[in-house]
Amino acid sequence: MTQKFDVVVIGAGPGGYVAAIKAAQLGLKTACIEKYQDKEGKVALGGTCLNVGCIPSKALLDSSWKYYEAKEGFAIHGIEAKGVSIDVPAMVARKSNIVKNLTGGVSTLFKANGVTLLEGHGKLLAGKQIEVTGLDGKTQLVQAENVIIASGSKPIDIPPAPVDQDVIVDSTGALEFQSVPKSLGVIGAGVIGLELGSVWARLGAEVTVIEAQDKFLPAADEQIAKEAMKTFTKQGLKIRLGARLTASEVKKKQVTVSFTDADGEQKMTFDKLIVAVGRRPVTTDLLAADSGVTLDERGFIYVDDQCATSVPGVYAVGDVVRGAMLAHKASEEGVMVAERIAGHKAQMNYDLIPSVIYTHPEIAWVGKTEQQLKAEGVAVNVGTFPFAASGRAMAANDTGGMVKVIADANTDRVLGVHVIGPSAAELVQQGAIGMEFGTSAEDLGMMVFSHPTLSEALHEAALAVNGGAIHIANRKKR
Fold first, then answer.
1. pTM recorded for the entire structure
2. 478 has pLDDT over 90
């Protein structure tokens, strides 16, 4: 007998599991299909983010930073730490334990909210039927009133560097190194490449990042990107821009890569190579030919602003649809869709999705960049405040970077907040809250910020927009 549900979600990543929980909370009979298996062969919830993405990479970033600080940054505090060493297998085991706790937590939340978990691969057929192929190969049909596709994304493979998960690895393999490579190559200077490159550089690897684009961090504000390039170079990351990979050859547990840049043909040899050139949507065997759901020219599921596909009652969220491939974007889309299915008029503000790079210093932004606004012909006022002038940052010996606030020159409405420095992600979130309510730079400047905090840097940058900063000299208005 075919099981029937109000909502069936395909995929239990940040988009899928959140959508399933929200739908169940709204009184809808809900099932969620997931096939991902952990190392023990058990189905693990949480998708890429919890298992092999956001969470494990942050665990390694934090561990590697603590090691680096103990080795290089304790002396200034008067702390003597001799013979500091890193136990890489222990660091990786801690990471795996965090993942296990969190994926188990999602499982508990499913039970608490009455979500039915169906283990296996889900494929959408005509008439909102889903074929579920279990781990044992047996199939069953499930009937849904509404379907939410949240199948996620996976790393892009490139022919010049085929991944073997030994010498040449993708972002998943880079989380499993059991020792620090002497030399490490990273293909791609995006979020993933910079974060993973940072982890192993702090632990002692010589890291070279090879990036095809001529511009560093083109999505970030140019001023912030320049500061980041300067900072990472000082930290020892060698970043080669305008470098196009042409070939790789693995010999005796090393890989030699060939690439072309402004100086012509180049060759470099590494102990390990991480390929981090982006991710692509997972749609393999996901949609039957007569399902009615259409893909766009880049292979993403076509959806409208409310994540509805071309089939009534079928939605898609997260990395498998247009927009930034971010866990928090996927989750909020999942909530929006669940609420719309339940009859609410939920909307999502796509203009205010924060972006974060969890290097040290962190880089984060929300809203528009100065170059975007100039290209649109919007007159702006800009205020910046360096962490070098922050008492709290000085106390923490973490004074690199700045906060930048961009406001409309005519209305003073804040259009962008950009930060490189300590707690950048948290400060940008403060900016996002204000921007959601249409804040002006003057509004932020009139609020009382506690002292001494890193948040004061946002306060001062907002004051600086209109030449009113207190703790730095203001630019003279022309």
1. 0.97
2. no
